[in-house]
From TrEMBL:
Pfam families tied to this protein: NAD_binding_8 (PF13450)
GO molecular function, one term: oxidoreductase activity
Superkingdom as given in the UniProt entry: Eukaryota
Entry coiled-coil feature ranges: none
UniProt cofactor(s): FAD
Organism of this sequence: Citrus sinensis
Key words, A-Z: FAD, Flavoprotein, NADP, Oxidoreductase
Protein name stated in the entry: FAD/NAD(P)-binding domain-containing protein
């Protein structure tokens, strides 16, 4: 399923009008819904989904708490999409270093950027950069085992109080 090397070694000739070739950058819900709708709307379309992570499903995999299986069940639907004969997933492909946007635009008729936000916005609150202050993204990635959260080590033993800003 995870064919990053195959994708990187693909060689396309000049774009022809048939079949429609679509590249979806990002394999979270937005990316998979885009791929699914494209496959249904264009009966000959070829859809490649690329992601910087080695595994698909984005926030469904790494942003939904394990105690919410009813939310995570959408992975079944996404799995059917990626197993479709006209759809491929390629992990470990980073836009900007593995491949440029201009290269993708030369290889595909359509490029959809569906990768979401990968960083937090500073709130401008004094102390937001202190040790022990974490963004929701960081914390959720940490407790869900996302590769980008592996170095976070929240101190969960020194206090029984937490403060959450926002919702």
């Amino acid at each position: 399923m995870y064919k990053a090397r195959a994708w990187l070694s693909r060689s396309f000739t000049a774009l022809s009008s048939n079949p429609l070739r679509v590249c979806v950058v990002g394999s979270g819900p937005a990316g998979f819904y885009t791929a699914e709708k494209t496959l249904k709307a264009h009966q000959e379309a070829q859809v490649d989904i690329i992601d910087r992570l080695p595994t698909p499903f984005g926030l469904v995999r790494s942003g939904v708490a394990p105690d919410h299986p009813e939310t995570k069940i959408v992975i079944n639907q996404f799995s059917r999409v990626v197993q479709h004969e006209r759809c491929s997933f390629f992990g470990n492909v980073t836009l900007g270093s593995s491949v440029s946007l201009s290269e993708l635009r030369q290889l595909y008729h359509v490029v959809v950027l569906a990768y979401g936000a990968e960083s937090d916005r500073a709130l401008g609150i004094p102390g937001e950069d202190l040790i022990g202050v974490h963004s929701a993204r960081e914390f959720v990635w940490w407790y869900n085992g996302h590769p980008d959260g592996k170095n976070l080590s929240p101190d969960l033993k020194s206090t029984d109080t937490a403060v959450i800003l926002g919702q």
